[in-house]
TrEMBL record:
This is Uncharacterized protein. It comes from Victivallis vadensis. Keywords: Membrane, Transmembrane, Transmembrane helix. The lineage of its organism: Bacteria, Pseudomonadati, Lentisphaerota, Lentisphaeria, Victivallales. The chain crosses the membrane at residues 352-373.
Length: 1042
């Protein structure tokens, strides 16, 4: 710390000195100062992290760890002239200090004050916690939660506990307040119970009761206030005390705004009557006030002679108030009205005299002005007309206007502007005469060119263009000649245009007829499409040349003819494309290169070649999806062995193909109902259900007693049996807690046992007798039991029920299996163990076996057929009774059914079950892994004979017919070997039709031989094949000779 202080002193001396040059000593001082700032900021950063984490006390402890404290060091380093020192550091390239973290310093300073407040609150809490009430405790704890974020969890726990004790006090006080009718106290208590500041919530029932009591008291209070207020309103109304009535009505308005208040109808009528009377009083008072104001206003207007209109207005408003007006005021108004009318008549007479004189003088002045204006207007009009005519080069018209002015007003004609215009018109007339002579010569040349041969040449057009530009201002005879010549020219042009149009129309019609002829020839058999296409192109070029040379033909006609020809060309092109496509489709239908070419032709048949779509081809098109499935859905062996790959393969099958034979066969490998789920997880769900429904219910101790006749009584105890021994160490008695029904508490059951000397070989035997049967009096037990099975009473060890131990062990073993195959193998082993188990309750053994058999359904569809028959036999074994396996007498009372259950279990051949399932899987796998090729199509000869047309030369051993026989129903047949020669046997003609595709297995194996091998294997195991794959031929499922 001394180095920091020395550095600060050196910095202060440097800043005050006159010589402020850079020296090695000052550089060392700068380094020491910078290092101190870096260290302080680092420690402040640690404090900031603690503060942000809510550990303010830890931050304060870190602050006080140093001496002087961290905040004091920061204050020393952040001296007032620090900015000036930093400028020198940048100037001389000395180590610049980082700025001190003032924000953290301020937080630490604030934390000191907060810690002091927190300590005071903690001391306050200690006092309140010992002697204070719950309300005071809650107030202090809330302050502690807000002041100590780090310890808020502890304070909140205390607060929650105090709030729960406070709820009991408030509910008790609330009931007392409700009994005493203290609405204010009850409202305060309820507000505290529903305060948003509470961490916990009181019980809803008592809170609802308190709210109902509060609402009832509030309603009573409102009705009491209503009655009191209505009495006050009636009193004020009777006394006609307006001020008191206004106050009471305001209080009524406030009362009506209270929530939940519903005023009575008689009260509303009473208030309405009082309000109407009060309004009438206010209106009458207002009218009297207004009357006084108007009376004063009218008097002032009469005194100041404000005018008749103002006086009349004030008087009328005064009379409208319908109050008595003084007669003196009325007389003053009448006198003022008469004086005003007399003065008005005098002013009117004077105005009439002055008006007549002024009018006569005005008429005289107007007459003089009109004449002057008229002369000026005529002069200007004449000048304007002459200007316009001269602008139009009409000199004759301009001279005629001047002659008219000179004739009508000689004085005006002498005006200089009119004389100047007359001179311009004379000069223009001379120029027009010379222009008329030139126009006449040009017109003669144009008339000579008006012949059909010359009228369209450029010379004639140029002559008439010049004449048109020179026609303005020419003499009328010349203009008439020009119009006649122009009409003749137009007529000649129109005649030429009509002639060319006729010729163009005829040529276009000829071209269209030629195109129609070509279009009609295209579909004919034997026509050369290539030559016809060249002809169409040649005709199109001919029409293009016609268009280019069709000068003078109207554009819309050319466009119309071009559209018609384009339509004809389009028809021809369409016919070419359609015919080419039709021939291609026919070629692929009658002599296809392969199946895919044939299938493509069938797909496009209905749209592109409906004429070829006869009934057989339509039927073949409907079977394309089925046929493709025979070729496009080969299944790899790995998919059938992997649930994940099988799941992905099934998900990839389109919805429209899910009912096809191959898809149906593939789906058989997926466990029913879980094809798109994790099968291992689904099996574990079934195990969960087994544990919930059977294992948990069987968690009991089992005690087996036998009577003298060998009858077996199985007691199931909720608790472990207790044995009491005599002083000699011999068992004396036993206590059970027998459970007769699921969920029932154990019924106490005591057994006494004693030793007797037996007569058989001097051996000793233990006999058991219940000490009391009162609790189990409905069950008739033998007088004594002669044997306790499975327990040595010298050293008794009691076990849980045998079926419970077996099922618990089975569930554990199945859960330990990682894959579906392991689970399936383990399930088979467990079924065998259950069948061979001699310790289990016979009925519960049947239940355990049935549950495990049901579990097999989750592994494969192939268990369904076998399990249906097996489960039926097991269900029949107990005669359909609802067994109560907890009843100790159940086995003794129904020995025949016990024997039937044992016989049904003994007849269960688990090995055979699994062998049959393996055989089915092998059969289905063989069917799915077979790949097929499309060999050819069925063709009908002239005599009705059906033969096979091969797609390509190929060897095959047998042919398959794949057909549909209804919605989602299919028929697959294997033709006899004789069909391999290409002729369909007569007995199979009803299964075939022309256009049908026939298939052959790629593996070159006989389906009949494969089926016989599977039937032989099943017969060797003593079973038969009841299910065949959908994709297996119908006539190769039974005997070979079928």
């Amino acid at each position: 710390m001394s180095k920091i202080q020395e550095s600060l002193d050196a910095i202060g001396r440097f800043l005050d000195a006159a010589d402020q040059s850079s020296t090695p000593a000052m550089r060392s001082v700068a380094e020491v100062y910078r290092a101190a700032c870096v260290e302080v900021n680092a420690r402040l950063g640690e404090c900031r992290k603690l503060i942000d984490a809510g550990l303010l006390s830890e931050a304060e402890r870190l602050n006080r760890r140093l001496s002087p404290s961290l905040t004091e060091r920061a204050g020393m380093l952040d001296f007032p002239r620090c900015a000036e020192w930093c400028e020198f550091c940048r100037l001389y390239d000395w180590p610049s200090p980082p700025p001190i973290d003032r924000a953290t310093v301020e937080k630490l300073a604030a934390g000191v004050a907060l810690a002091a407040d927190l300590n005071a609150l903690v001391r306050r809490w200690r006092l309140v916690a010992r002697d204070g009430g719950s309300a005071e405790k809650i107030r202090v704890l809330r302050q502690l939660v807000a002041a100590d974020p780090a310890g808020s969890r502890v304070w909140k726990e205390n607060l929650a506990e105090v709030e729960r004790s406070r709820f009991a006090e408030l509910l008790r006080d609330g009931k007392l307040a409700a009994e005493h009718g203290d609405v204010a106290e009850l409202q305060r208590i309820y507000s505290e119970l529903v305060s948003p500041e509470l961490l916990t919530q009181p019980e809803r029932g008592p809170l609802a009761e308190l709210a109902a009591a509060l609402a009832e008291l509030q309603q009573k209070e409102l009705h009491r206030r209503e009655e009191t207020l209505l009495d006050g309103i009636a009193s004020a109304y009777s006394a006609m005390d307006r001020n008191a009535l206004e106050r009471k009505l305001e209080e009524w308005r406030i009362l009506c705004s209270e929530p939940g208040f519903q005023p009575a109808q008689n009260g509303l009528r009473q208030v309405e009557d009082a309000r109407k009377w009060l309004e009438e009083c206010r209106e009458r008072q207002e009218r009297e006030r207004r009357f006084s104001e108007l009376e004063v206003q009218l008097t002032d207007e009469l005194d100041n002679e404000a005018g008749l209109r103002s006086v009349e207005s004030s008087f009328n408003m005064l009379m409208a108030l319908d109050l008595p007006v003084s007669s003196r005021l009325v007389e003053r108004v009448e006198r003022y009205r008469e004086s005003c009318l007399l003065a008005e008549r005098r002013r009117h007479i004077r105005k009439c005299i002055y008006g007549i004189g002024g009018a006569l003088l005005l008429v005289l002045l107007v007459a003089v002005a009109v004449r002057l204006v008229q002369n000026e207007r005529e002069s200007r009009e004449a000048g304007r007309q002459m200007e316009e005519l001269l602008a139009e080069k009409n000199a004759v018209g301009a001279l005629a206007v001047y002659d008219r002015v000179r004739r009508d007003s000689p004085a005006l004609a002498e005006r200089p502007e009119l004389l100047a215009l007359r001179a311009r018109a004379g000069k223009l007339a001379d120029e027009f005469a010379a222009a008329d002579a030139g126009f006449a010569r040009l017109l003669e040349r144009a008339e000579e060119a008006l012949t059909p041969e010359r009228v369209e040449n450029s010379e004639a057009a140029e002559l008439f263009r010049k004449l048109g530009s020179m026609a303005a201002g020419r003499a009328q005879p010349l203009l008439d000649r020009f119009d006649a010549a122009d009409r003749k020219r137009r007529k000649l042009l129109e005649e030429n245009r009509e002639r060319r149009t006729r010729e163009f129309r005829a040529a276009s019609e000829r071209i269209r007829r030629e195109l129609e002829r070509i279009s009609a020839e295209i579909p004919r058999e034997g026509s050369s499409l290539e030559q016809l296409e060249q002809a169409v192109r040649a005709v199109g070029k001919e029409f293009d040349a016609l268009l280019r040379n069709a000068s003078g033909v109207a554009g819309n006609l050319k466009q119309q003819q071009q559209e018609l020809v384009n339509i004809a060309v389009g028809r021809a092109d369409g016919a070419l494309r359609t015919t080419a496509k039709l021939r291609s489709i026919r070629q692929r239908l009658t002599a296809p290169a392969d199946f895919w070419s044939y299938a493509g032709a069938l797909e496009t048949l209905a749209v592109e070649a409906p004429s070829l779509a006869d009934a057989n081809r339509k039927r073949a098109a409907g079977l394309l999806g089925l046929w493709r499935s025979m070729l496009e859905q080969p299944v790899e062996a790995g998919i059938l062995e992997s649930p994940e790959k099988l799941k992905e393969r099934l998900a990839a099958i389109p919805a429209g193909e899910a009912a096809l034979p191959v898809a149906l066969d593939l789906a058989k490998f997926a466990p029913p109902g879980i094809a798109y789920r994790d099968p291992v997880a689904a099996v574990k769900e079934k195990l969960d259900k087994l544990e919930r429904e059977v294992i948990a219910d069987s968690d009991l101790y089992e005690l087996i007693l036998a009577d003298a006749a060998g009858g077996e009584y199985r007691f199931y105890s909720v608790t472990e049996p207790k044995v009491l021994f005599s002083s000699t160490g011999v068992a004396k008695s036993m206590e059970l807690a027998v459970s007769l029904h699921s969920g029932q508490e154990g019924i106490p059951f005591y057994l006494q046992l004693w030793r007797t000397d037996g007569s058989e070989g001097g051996r000793s035997a233990y006999r058991f007798q219940p000490s009391s049967q009162t609790a189990l009096e409905k069950l008739a037990f033998p007088k004594e039991f002669v044997e306790l099975r499975g327990v040595d009473m010298k050293q008794p060890v009691f076990q849980k029920a045998a079926h419970y131990r077996f099922l618990a062990r089975a569930a554990a073993r199945l859960r330990d299996a990682k894959t579906l195959e392991e689970m399936e193998r383990e399930t088979g082993s467990l079924i065998r163990s259950a069948v061979e188990n001699r310790e289990m309750n016979p009925y519960m053994k049947v239940v355990a076996v049935k549950r495990l058999l049901e579990l097999l359904r989750a592994f494969s569809f192939f268990y369904d057929v076998q399990l249906t028959d097996i489960l039926y036999r097991l269900d029949r074994s107990n005669a359909g009774r609802n067994w109560n396996w907890r009843n100790p007498r159940e086995l003794v009372d129904h020995p025949d059914e016990v024997r039937e259950m044992e016989a049904a279990l003994a007849a269960l051949d688990v090995t055979r079950l699994f062998d049959e399932v393996r055989l089915y899987r092998k059969l289905w796998k063989t069917a799915l892994l077979r790949k097929f090729q499309a060999v050819g199509t069925v063709e009908e000869k002239a005599g009705g004979e059906l033969t096979l047309r091969l797609f390509a030369p190929v060897r095959f051993r047998e042919l398959w017919v794949v057909d549909s026989v209804g919605k989602d129903k299919f028929r697959i047949l294997c033709l006899p070997d004789s069909a391999a020669g290409g002729r369909i046997p007569e007995e199979f003609r009803r299964y075939c039709f022309p256009g049908q595709v026939l298939f052959a297995p790629v593996d070159w194996r006989s389906t009949g031989e494969l089926a016989a091998a599977f039937r032989k294997e099943a017969a060797e195991r003593g079973s038969r094949i009841d299910m065949w794959p959908q994709s297996w031929p119908l006539n190769r499922r039974g005997r070979e000779d079928e």
